[in-house]
């Protein structure tokens, strides 16, 4: 193991996106150059048990130079594992604690984007407690401020779980109940009739953006089924959009990345409005889908960076970030 870089690929996890993570991690591990890397798979079960590779290594992070968290959603993409790795002083791939947490929480994310002047859909944040105590007031606010159709989402989740498109007032209560069953914060957004454009971002303090791609869903919107059932969604790379729109998407993607102080990687998703051709930032994903068929690596491939080279670069960025952080002192003696 001496000359090789020990890379622990933590995957699975206590998240609704457990299975997606297994697929992403399998692709990542398969593509890693074994002459360069000692691959250490660490699987977290749905129940939260950590399974170490055989022969079992003691859980001291011994022999681990870098961790690649390939965990989507809760307990992985949200800053929790990043916090553990900060405490253990181990370099890791991707955004830090704050970037991960803000990227995961749609209401914090939108507030930060708004502060940075990024264009986005109008939205409203409601606490589960408010919805439970004053349902009529909440319904009235949604109708007055967002109108119909609108989108109702749990603030912290992913893969479209708990998300509803609400076409008329009669459907609103059920949508709010559903979102409230997943999180104590609910986001309600105005409906945007749009194409969905995605851009991959890579880098630390000087990040770069890939060419944009487009997702087309056969369903009414890009819901869970569309995301994970074969044939329900199609990727178009590059997106068939005007050059200036493409440039603008790349600029906004890097701006969104910087706004949450991200590092390593992220995928920034946009709405390209059908009526005006205007780009609105929908969200940032700090641990995007990473299978060979996923948008993030495919966008880099199309931009000239192969899947194995992308992994090399992410590991280098993790080491660079850790080195940079080590330059800071904790306080004065
Ligand atoms: N305001 C909106 N207007 C139109 N469609 C939306 C809106 N918000 C979400 N959607 C649809 O729902 C999908 C999932 O929403 P998103 O906010 O990206 O959640 P997730 O984090 O689960 O991916 C989007 O890809 C899009 O198809
Ligand atoms: Mg999304």
Residue runs with pLDDT of under 50 for 5 or more positions:
none
Write the CATH fold name of the largest domain.
D-amino Acid Aminotransferase, Chain A, domain 1
Number of helices: 11
Number of separate structural domains? 3
Fraction of residues in helices? Answer: 25-40%
Q: CATH H level of the largest domain: which superfamily?
A: ATP-grasp fold, B domain
Q: Please give the oligomerization state of what you see.
A: single chain
Describe the structure.
This protein has helices at residues 18-31, 80-87, 97-104, 106-115, 128-133, 135-145, 172-182, 224-228, 243-259, 295-303, 307-326, and strands spanning 5-12, 37-44, 50-51, 66-70, 123-127, 150-154, 164-166, 185-190, 194-203, 208-209, 213-217, 233-236, 264-273, 279-285. With 333 residues, it is α+β, with helices and mostly antiparallel strands. It folds into three domains: 5-94, Rossmann fold, CATH 3.40.50; 103-119 and 192-320, 2-Layer Sandwich (D-amino Acid Aminotransferase, Chain A, domain 1), CATH 3.30.470; 123-190, ATP-grasp fold, A domain (Dna Ligase, domain 1), CATH 3.30.1490.20. Strands 9, 10, 11, 12, 13 and 14 form a six-stranded antiparallel β-sheet that branches. Strands 3-2-1-4 form a four-stranded mixed β-sheet, with helices on both faces. Strands 5-8-6-7 form a four-stranded antiparallel β-sheet, with helices on both faces. 41% of the residues are buried. The mean pLDDT is 93. Bound molecules: adenosine-5'-diphosphate (ADP) and magnesium ion. Adenosine-5'-diphosphate binds next to strand 6 and strand 14. The site of adenosine-5'-diphosphate has 16 residues, from strand 6 and strand 14.
């Amino acid at each position: 193991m001496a000359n090789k870089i020990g890379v622990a690929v933590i995957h699975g996890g206590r998240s609704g996106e457990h299975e997606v993570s297994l697929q992403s991690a399998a692709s990542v591990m398969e593509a890693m150059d074994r002459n360069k890397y000692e691959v250490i798979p660490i699987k977290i079960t749905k129940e939260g048990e950590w399974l170490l590779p055989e022969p079992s290594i003691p859980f001291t992070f011994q022999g681990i130079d870098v961790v690649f968290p390939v965990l989507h959603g809760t307990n992985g993409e949200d800053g929790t594992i990043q916090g553990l790795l900060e405490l253990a002083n181990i370099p890791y791939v991707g955004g830090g604690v704050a970037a991960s947490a803000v990227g995961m929480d749609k209401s914090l994310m939108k507030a930060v984007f708004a502060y940075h002047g990024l264009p986005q859909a109008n939205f409203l944040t409601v606490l589960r407690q408010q919805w439970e105590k004053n349902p009529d007031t909440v319904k009235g606010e949604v109708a007055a401020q967002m109108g119909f159709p609108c989108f109702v989402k749990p603030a912290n989740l992913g893969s479209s779980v708990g998300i509803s498109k609400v076409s008329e007032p009669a459907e609103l209560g059920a949508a709010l109940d559903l979102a409230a069953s997943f999180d104590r914060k609910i986001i309600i957004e105005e409906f945007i009739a749009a194409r969905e454009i995605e851009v991959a971002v890579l880098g630390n303090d000087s990040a770069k953006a890939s060419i944009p791609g487009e997702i087309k869903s056969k369903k009414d919107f890009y819901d869970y089924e569309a995301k994970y059932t074969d044939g329900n969604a199609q990727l178009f790379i590059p997106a068939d959009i005007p050059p200036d729109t493409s440039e603008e998407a790349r600029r906004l993607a890097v701006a969104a990345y910087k706004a949450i102080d991200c590092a390593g990687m992220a995928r920034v998703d946009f709405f390209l409005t059908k009526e005006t051709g205007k780009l609105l930032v929908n969200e940032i994903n700090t641990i995007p889908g990473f299978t060979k068929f996923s948008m993030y690596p495919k966008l880099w491939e199309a931009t000239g960076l192969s899947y194995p080279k992308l992994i090399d670069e992410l590991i280098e960025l993790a080491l660079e970030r850790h080195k940079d952080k080590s330059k800071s002192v904790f306080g004065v003696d």
